Amino acid sequence: MGEQCNWIKKTQQSFHPVEVTKGLWIVPEWGAPPDVQATNIILNPGLAFGSGEHATTKLCLLLLRRLIKGGELFLDYGTGSGILGIAAIKFGAAMSVGADIDPQAIKSAHQNAALNNIGPKKMKLHLVPDRTFTASMNERVDGVVEDLSSHKIRGISQTEKYDVVIANILLNPLLQLADHIVSYAKPGAVVGISGILSEQLPHIINRYSEFLEDILVSEMDDWTCVSGKKKRVKEDH
């Protein structure tokens, strides 16, 4: 028990406040915000991805800060710790929806939302069924998940609903699920894609050019974030 307590303490000591950019900080639950006037995202990363220290998380936060003007609906596809959903609300989005295949991520995101005084009406979290999760298909996580056996998850079953969609996951699911990820965005809405190494960029550009236009690329520490506007379907006259 003593060793476990020491491990937790050491882990906490290794996680310091992170300044993503001027006026935007990621602050551990057990720390004090260095700038109380800044936008401070309070986080206990737990076992879920998204402590704010990874380049892809920072790139997505910078993209979100640019895109959210106020009143948007935001979808965080692969929510991890919930950091992007929390940031979107703090930037002025009307609602965030986070989806993940990992029950631990949903639990972590739920706890982190509470740390930032964001309730379930503002930030909805959904555990999405995955073929690898047959054992946990019908579990409930903190009462947040209603029905895991159906692929029509309440809250994210509607396509073409969201003003901003970001997927910060891994290369293979980004390639395999491209049409599914983009389907949730309104025509003309911005879709952000990250979790990509710079050397993997051509694969992503090639795959997403079918769905997105005005594509932009930002880079940090050999990682990239791709964003573009969802193409509008041209009607035949």
TrEMBL record:
Gene3D superfamilies with a match to the protein in the record: Vaccinia Virus protein VP39
Highest taxon of the lineage: Eukaryota
Single GO BP term: methylation
A Pfam cross-reference name: PrmA
GO cellular component: mitochondrion
Tagged with keyword NAD: no
GO MF assignments: protein-lysine N-methyltransferase activity
Cross-referenced InterPro entries: Ribosomal_L11_MeTrfase_PrmA, SAM-dependent_MTases_sf
UniProt keywords, alphabetically: Methyltransferase, Transferase
PANTHER family in the cross-refs: ELECTRON TRANSFER FLAVOPROTEIN BETA SUBUNIT LYSINE METHYLTRANSFERASE (PTHR43648:SF1)
Assigned protein family: Belongs to the methyltransferase superfamily. ETFBKMT family.
Name of protein: ETFB lysine methyltransferase
